[in-house]
Amino acid sequence: MRKFLFIVGISGIVGSLYWYFKKQLELALQYEYSVKDFKIKELTTEGTEIEATVKLVNKSAFEIIVLNYDLEIAYKGNQVVRLISSKDFLIPADTSFDLVASVKIDFDESKKALLPFALSVLQQKPIKVELTGFVKVEFIGLEHTIKFDNETVEYSSNILKEYGLADDFEKLKQKIPFIKK
Hints:
The protein is an alpha+beta fold and 181 residues long. The chain has helices at residues 2-29, 107-122, 159-162, 166-175, and strands spanning 32-43, 47-58, 64-75, 78-85, 89-91, 95-106, 127-139, 142-156. The strands form two sheets. Strands 3, 4, 5, 7 and 8 form a five-stranded antiparallel β-sheet that branches. Strand 1 (32-43) and strand 2 form a beta hairpin.
């Protein structure tokens, strides 16, 4: 009887630990992210350099190490930029983390997306981008790859309003009739 209780006890402990780590892995993979800030650092006739601050949230009780990533950001099916990094960085447990990324955009590569983007901004429609690629992370010593297959992310619900330009644009629309469309 004692042996049976010992086996049941050990099984219960192992099962509980398995469930706990499985739940923590699920929480780690339920990442949250949002674009906090978007600044144009340099603008030339060939392209622009943009600095974006992305807020990452780790809901797990364990830290996550981002090992590398290769992401393509597209707008309405047209590639805007590709982000590639092999530099590790740590996202602490149960916290949010701001990742600052600097990106150079070549106008020749992204010009197909420029007109639809400008129209969405002027029509004050949400700006949604598509992510394709992967992010490789390490969680409790185990590597995991998070794949993105044209996953849609809303960058802004109304970019003119967020940057404080909506009222000025409304005044401009009153003065210039063809913008009202």
